[in-house]
Amino acid sequence: MKTLTLTRPDDWHLHVRNGEMLKTVIPHTVRQFARAIIMPNLKPPVTTVIQALAYRDEILRAIPDHLLFNPLMTLYLTAQTPASEIKKVAESEHVHAFKLYPAGATTNSDAGVGNVKTIYPLLEAMQNHDIPLLIHGEVTDERVDIFDRERVFIEDSLIDITRQFPNLRLVVEHVTTQEAVQFVLSSGPNIAATITPQHLLFNRNAILAGGIRPHYYCLPVIKREHHRLALVAAATSANPKFFLGTDSAPHHTSLKENACGCAGCYSAHAALELYAEAFEQADALDKLEGFASFYGPDFYRLPRNNGTVTLERATWKVPERYGENDLSITPLKANEELRWKIQ
Ligand code: NCD
Ligand code: ZN
Q: Got the DSSP string for 80-103?
């Protein structure tokens, strides 16, 4: 196959930051995706509809003129979120979901929720207003091994949330384990998951074997090969519960190549190309369109996009870095070749 044309896709989990970083990364997303669910973990976090609309305007101002893009905003859920804010989200055209970060789980999650049970009244309100809840599914208990934190979160919190709120629409973001895939498969149609390119393409050797490679470090951390295989099987199964969410998470190179490096892989520069590689390896390129372009909008009850993107079978080398002046972002697969290219 020389070219592959898909209905224009969307990215259902994306970090674009703000300021100069935003201006550098947003063109990468806009050239391939029509819409993206924008993560609210700024400093300070985006917790109100008013803040989300201001952030949305900043994103729109950073987009090159001729390109159309719709940022789908989310609010950062905290124990202090008032019920009135949930009603405002329900009435908002531009805010589509709440994001739940367990406190301390990942980058800029200090304001997250400690004990999930304390926010059950808020989850009830979300269920009543039919607003999706997006979950970073990891426990933060230091006694739990970092590679087990997703599985333990499912056992300790997620199962109970879905029992208490059986009609809550919920996305388990960036699933990384066989157990998470199994959980989603055994739940109702209101429970879905996003999958990143790095979790489809790599296992934990990419981070740790033959040297420590900080640009492959993200949270939840990339797991063993059998988990990767479970994720590939889910993504390529044409099951609408699994859809594209890059979790592209840019950080300054110096904060990644650091004695205590930040979590997050930058993948927006080549997101669709990276997914195409993963699907091609699984001999499932015919399943990419559903995963990238159909199941996400169906879950969020938004129309599928008009228009298309075409990938061609062409080798190109990923640059070593993106950014001007002092800004440097090291992309996933920096200095390496990719097999697909967007026309
Ligand atoms: C994300 C970031 O940098 O904002 N990092 C990551 O490793 N995925 C936060 C997140 O989604 O966990
Ligand atoms: Zn994320």
A: T--HHHHHHHHH-SSEEEEEE-BT
Distance from residue 249's CA to the centre of ligand 2 (Å):
6
Residue 195 near ligand 1, beta carbon < 6 Å: no
Q: State pLDDT tens for residues 129-179.
A: 999 999 999 999 999 999 999 999 999 999 999 999 999 999 999 999 999
From the candidates 141, 156, 247, 283, give the one annotated as an active-site residue. 247
User: pTM here?
Assistant: 0.98
Q: Taking the mean position of all CA atoms in its chain, how far away is CA 222?
A: 14
Our answer on whether the CB atom of 264 is closer than 6 Å to any ligand 1 atom is yes
What are the structural domains of the chain? 10-304 (3.20.20.140)
CB 305 within 8 A of CB 282: no
Query: Which stretches of 32-119 are DSSP H helices?
Result: 49-61, 83-91
